[in-house]
Amino acid sequence: MILVDQAIWPWRGMRWAHLVSDESYDELHEFADRLGIPRRAFQGDHYDVPAHIRDEAIALGAEAVDARVLVRRLRAAGLRKR
């Protein structure tokens, strides 16, 4: 399942969210590709996405979750990088 947390992280005058998969990196990369996010934007275990892309991700089926839930599910899946 693709997960996205709240767009609360400020950077470059925008608010950003984290996009992850609790299934596999392949699932995450395929979903990011559907959103037009380049692979070079991958940050080890997630993509940072601005608020408007977060909305698109949710429209494409990503589950909106709290940041704590996102991290918990990422760890449970063994996909969390430190």
Write the layout of secondary structure elements.
Blueprint: E1 2-4, E2 9-11, E3 14-21, H1 25-34, E4 47-50, H2 51-59, E5 63-64, H3 67-76
Parallel strand pairs: 1-5
Antiparallel strand pairs: 1-3, 2-3, 3-4
Report what the structure shows.
With 82 residues, this protein is α+β, with helices and mostly antiparallel strands. The chain is 35% helix and 24% strand. The protein has three helices and five strands. The protein has helices spanning 25-34, 51-59, 67-76; strands at residues 2-4, 9-11, 14-21, 47-50, 63-64. Strands 1, 2, 3, 4 and 5 form a five-stranded mixed sheet that branches. The model has no long low-confidence stretch (mean pLDDT 96).
Radius of gyration from the alpha-carbon trace, in angstroms? 11 Å
Report the mean per-residue pLDDT as an integer: 96
The structure class reads alpha+beta
Count of DSSP strands: 5
Low-confidence stretches: none
**Terminal Cα span:** 21 Å
Q: Rough shape? A: globular
Report helical residue fraction.
Answer: 25-40%
Largest sheet: 5 strands, mixed
